[in-house]
Amino acid sequence: MVVSLLLVADGDDPAADATGASTSISAAEVAATHTPQASRSERRGGQLAGADSLGGRRAVPLDNAAARRGVRVVHERRVQARIKARQARLKAKRLRRAARLAAREKTSTFRIGSLNVLGSQHSAGPGGYGPGTDRAAMAAGLVMSRGVDVLTMSEVQDDQLGVLNARLAGYSIWPQQSLGSNGQRLQIAWRASQFEMVDGGSVTFTFASQAIPMPYVLLRDLGTGAEFWVISIHTSAGGLEGERDAGTAIAISLMKRLEAESGKPVLIGGDVNEHEEFFYKVCGATGFLAANGGGAGCSLPPAPLRVDWIMGGGGAGVNFSGYVQDGATLARISDHYFIHAAVSVVDPGGTP
Predict the structure, then answer these.
(1) pTM of this structure
(2) Torsion on CA atoms 180, 116, 121, 327, rounded to nearest 10
(3) Residue 324: exposed, middle, or buried by beta-carbon count in 10 A (0-12, 13-18, 19+)?
C-alpha cells in the first residue's frame, strides 16, 4: 500500500512562502521510519530461537516406557479387583447356599452297632477265649462284614485299641487315648467315607469304683449334611447297683442336654448291665425308644432282652429297623452279643 501525504502551505508559513511548493512522502519513506509488527510465525520463531540461545536447552524426545508401565499397573490392579470381587460374590453365594441347606430338614440312614469287645484281661476266664488282640482282630472283621457304619465299643484295652485301629479299615475311632486315664475303655467308630466328626466331649462317671469318661461325638453325614450325636456307655456290673443307677442318670442328663442345646437326634449304645431298668429309665425321661422296639407308655421291646442296648430319639425323629442280636461273637470273640440295626435319623436343621 502507498501512502501519500500532501502538505499545504499556510499563508503565514515563511518556509512555504520561501519554497512555494508542496511536499510528498512515499510509502518507502514511511517504512523507513516505522517498524511494522512481526507475523505470529516470525514471533514464535524468534521466541524459540531466543529461548535456545538464552537457556541452551534443546527439545528432548518423550520416553513413553514409564507411561506404558503405569498403564499396565493400573490394568493389572483393575483385573485383580475384578477377580477379588468375583471371588467375594462366589463366597457369599456359597455361604447363602450352605445356610439354606443347614436350615433344611435332613435325613441320614445307616447301620449302627454296639459291642463289648471283652477286655484282654478276661482272656483267661471261662469260655476259653483267646488273647485280647486276636479277638479284637476278629471283632473288626465281623463289624465290617455286617455293614455296620457307626459303632459303640466298651471294655476296650490299650492293646486291643491298636488292633482295632489297624483292622477297622476305613473307620475313624474316637476318643482313642485323648481323654486320659481310662479314656480308652469306651470308643466310638464310624465309616470315614460317610461321616465326619463335628464336635465331641465327655462326662465323668463311676465304673467299678473308678472315675472314667463317657465319650460322645457329633457326626455329620457327608452326603446329606444331617448331624446327630452318639454316646458310648458301660455301667457297672454285679452288685454295684448304686454306681449303675448313677451312671444311667448321668447318661440321661447328657442325652437331654445335647438334644436341648442342639436340637439334633441323639443315639446311645453300650453294655448297661440291665435287662429292663435302663430302657424304662431312659424312655421315661426322654421318650427315646430302643433299636429292638418298645412303644407307647415305654412298653418293653419283645424278648429276649440283653444287657446291651441301643436307644435313640430327639431331633425330628429316630426310627430303627432290622434289629439283630448277632451271636457270631459268642464262640471266640466276646461273651456279649453283637447288636446292630438300621437307623434313620432326621436332623431338623435350623433358621439360616
Answers:
(1) 0.72
(2) -160
(3) middle
